[in-house]
Structure formats: structure tokens, C-alpha cells
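The freezer alarm interrupted the setup, so I double-checked each line after restarting. Inputs confirmed:
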Amino acid sequence: DAGVIQSPRHEVTEMGQEVTLRCKPISGHDYLFWYRQTMMRGLELLIYFNNNVPIDDSGMPEDRFSAKMPNASFSTLKIQPSEPRDSAVYFCASSLAQIHQPQHFGDGTRLSIL
Amino acid sequence: QKEVEQNSGPLSVPEGAIASLNCTYSDRGSQSFFWYRQYSGKSPELIMFIYSNGDKEDGRFTAQLNKASQYVSLLIRDSQPSDSATYLCAVNQDQAGTALIFGKGTTLSVSS
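Predicted 3D structure, all chains:
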């Protein structure tokens, strides 16, 4: 079975540009999570969805960040406008709905804002 | 603010030794506990999960959970250089048991 698929793997862009990160969860998984990882703050949960509905977006740092899940097989995380402090590795993960279910991570997108 | 604490390390052990990684959590109501391994430049991969007090063994790995003391640990027996990585402890943060809080990880270095 295919795992969680993220694109692009690397993104380098200039400050002020719009950035869109994409994620395809594992088929059949009900939950989708977006994380950001930096050396200073570790792995932080930004937002997660259950059956395409956002459940908790309290981790989204600012209004510049937005996430959507238009269907069960696709989600986007958008940053507009981007800033250098947004530079990080962004991971998408998915899991089944039952309690105790582990999350499976994609390979991540390494984002650099110049 | 729910927290998961880990010693950042690095934890250095010789090949063949037992590596002991520890994690404490703040929310007494937490029910699910996970250990992920992350190699440099890679994504986290699940090693083990545990949700009952006591020990759970899987090959060279043993997870230990003590809910009364609010800690969970991971033992790696017969450590190999390929075990050198950062180990992340994760704890569920909601009643549904789905969203996780991750510790910042402990870096393990196994020398040959």
C-alpha cells in the first residue's frame, strides 16, 4: 500500500510569496494531521482533520496559515504571505479513527523562505 | 498546557549495550503512548506503542509505561550503530486518542 504522499519535497521561495504544500493520506484513513518541525520547537501539530472536517486548528501560528481538505484523498497547507521564520520541515500524517491508532508520516516538505 | 518532556541527549552507548530512553508527560488522563524513530533528514517512523501499565516487548525493543508516575520509557537491547537516531515520545492529547503531542526527542548515538 502507498504511504502518505507529500509534495513538493523541497521548496525554496522568496519572502512574501504564496506557498502551497500538498498531501495525500493513506487510503481509508479518517484523520489527517499537519505538523511543522524545527530544531528549536520540535514537532508541532498545526491542524488536524477528521473525515475532511477541521477539528482543531489551535496550532496554526497565524492567519497567514490556512489548510483545507476538499476530499478524503487530498489536503493543502497554504502560507500567504510567507516569511523567513516559516522555514521548517512540514509533515503530513494520517491515521485510522480508532483510539490507540498510530500516525503514519509522509516524507515531509523542506521549506526555505529567503 | 500539556507537555511531553525528553532529555535531548545525546545519549551515547557502545555497540551491544542497552540504551534507555525516558519520557515524562503532564496529562494524567493520557491513554496512548508512542515511540517514533527519526533518522536525520527523514520522517518519523513508528517503533512501538503502549497503552497498558507494564512492559511491552517487540524484538530488541521494550516499552515500559508507568501511569502513576507519568513516565514511559524505551529500552533498546543489543544496540547497533543503525539505531543511531532521534527518538520521539508521543502522547495522545485528546479524549479521542487521535491528536498527539510530541516530545522534542532524544538523540541516540551507538558507537561501534
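Quick read of the result. The interface with chain A takes residues 31-32, 34, 42-46, 49, 51, 88, 92-94, 96-105 of chain B (CB under 8 Å).
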